[in-house]
Amino acid sequence: MKNILCFGEILWDTFGDEKVAGGAPMNVARHLVQQNMEVQFASRIGKDTSGEGLVSFLKGNGLFSELIQMDDKLPTCEVTVQLDKQGAATYIIPEPVSWDNIQPDKLLTKAAEKASAIIYGSLACRESTTRDTLLNLLNETTALKVFDVNLRAPHYTLSTIETLVAGADVIKMNEDEAALLIGGNTHNIKENIIEFQKKYHAQTICVTRGDKGAIAWHDYEFYEHPGCHVSVVDTVGAGDSFLAAFVSGLLKKEPMQQLIEKACYVGAFVAGHRGANPVYDDSLKAMF
Predict the structure, then answer these.
(1) CB under 8 Å to 208, separation ≥6 — which residues?
(2) If the chain, 288 residues long, is cut into consecutive pieces of 10 residues, what is the mean pLDDT of each piece?
(3) Is residue 214 part of a domain?
(4) Residue 161 belongs to what domain range?
(5) Within a domain: residue 287?
(6) Is residue 75 part of a domain?
(7) Residues 232, 272: contact at Cβ < 8 Å?
(8) Whole-prediction pTM value?
(9) What is the DSSP annotation of 101-149?
(10) Residue 206, domain CATH
């Protein structure tokens, strides 16, 4: 069984009066569990009422371990989520919060050493403490390093993104993020991906295209899928579920065309349901 370490933020997404546990790396971890992968999640939570709720949530979902650090001073993160008429989300994220202060420790180092893959994003790296902890982990492991670009303005700098990209074996981004990082538009995206790869030397680069599917560069070939038709409820977690399926497929050495099709199908399923982590139906479970 391949072991995957997801590193980064956990938080409460608030939709009006409703609060839902979220955070991209935690969402990816939950989808990996549904995809029958062995996964560990590393983060930091405040010692407050919101933090107690997240601890209970993680325990209930099999993701609580000694890799969840507790912070005496910084609060648990609560994010305000706003959905437009198309179900697309924007986020208001406070700072500093507990996951800005993830500390290096022996348990985290040991988990990284044992991992087959480490999945990380840019949001938790907005402050130097967590960023330095992650970069040191990446330097100490032979695991597949998977960077989920996941930009949340204004919580990043291009210099930090470039550092995270440079350390990655696999890079996943959406179209807007690709426009910022590799430039151009959808008409010349292949040429831009090739130039981007020459600069940063990633093994695999994937760009998701919302309802238009995804394109991936892997082993000097391109693979595409046009996407799956779905009535969108909201897009929260769709990219996280796509990434989980994409990474699990890579670790299982599935054919890339099959892998990207499966990832698109999972992402569409999540977009067609409320929230980031709907329970998979039987047809989806059968794919894993």
Answers:
(1) 172, 173, 174, 175, 214, 239, 242, 267
(2) 92 88 96 97 98 97 97 96 78 95 97 97 98 96 96 94 97 94 79 95 96 95 96 90 98 97 97 92 93
(3) yes
(4) 3-281
(5) no
(6) yes
(7) yes
(8) 0.95
(9) GPPP-HHHHHHHHH-SEEEEESGGGSSHHHHHHHHHHHHT--SEEEEE-
(10) 3.40.1190.20
